[in-house]
Amino acid sequence: MKYIEKLQYITHDIPHLTHIEQAQLACEAGAKWIQYRCLSKADDELLKDINAIAEICDDWGTTLIVTDHIHLNGKADIQGFHIEDMNADFIALRKFVGDDITLGGSANTVEDLIRLANEGVDYAGFGPFAITETKPNSYSLLSLQAYIDAANKLDQLKITLPVLAVGGIKIYDVEAIMQTRIFGIAVSGAINFADDFIEAYQDFYEAVKL
């Protein structure tokens, strides 16, 4: 069973902080899991970012996950990949990266979650919970009841997949979301655009761990 953190911080292309600066601040705030999400750069630029962030993560004992770009496996100190394509063949992807690499996937329905579990992912992001500017999409928003129903269905099937709520989550949403028995939360915008990045991260951390 691989280590999966309950609060997963995701970097984004934003005007006021580079991905490296975001990672540094997150680690200073106590982050134990950073997902580098950059879909706008070529491989050489990606690797520059990833190598710099990997050094920061190594200093702080933080897990580094990369969104997509699975072809970079083995080219940098990356602990895992999160694949956003809900139709990806995770059986093939697992064969490609091997058993030691953490593999996460995105889901919008209980059926998605079941498939991900059957295809060997280590965790799933389940959303979107709310409208998010950092990752616009056309998927249906998920209610608190959808998280409860998903937890119940996975229990019935004896599936122990760690599921994290994701998508537009604000600090005031966390208590109710965690009461649905979901494993954890992935967050980006509510921290990246807060007046105080470190304080915002720590507020989320406390809320998720309660």
From TrEMBL:
Keyword match Metal-binding: no
Single annotated GO MF: thiamine-phosphate diphosphorylase activity
Superkingdom of the organism of origin: Bacteria
Signal sequence region: none
Limits of the Thiamine phosphate synthase/TenI domain: 10-191
Pfam family, one: TMP-TENI
GO CC annotation: cytoplasm
Assigned keywords, A-Z: Thiamine biosynthesis
Keyword flag Cell wall biogenesis/degradation: no
GO BP term, pick one: thiamine biosynthetic process
CDD domains cross-referenced by the UniProt entry: TMP_TenI (cd00564)
Pathway the protein acts in: Cofactor biosynthesis; thiamine diphosphate biosynthesis
PANTHER family (alphabetical): THIAMINE-PHOSPHATE PYROPHOSPHORYLASE (PTHR20857), THIAMINE-PHOSPHATE SYNTHASE (PTHR20857:SF15)
The protein, known as: Thiamine phosphate synthase
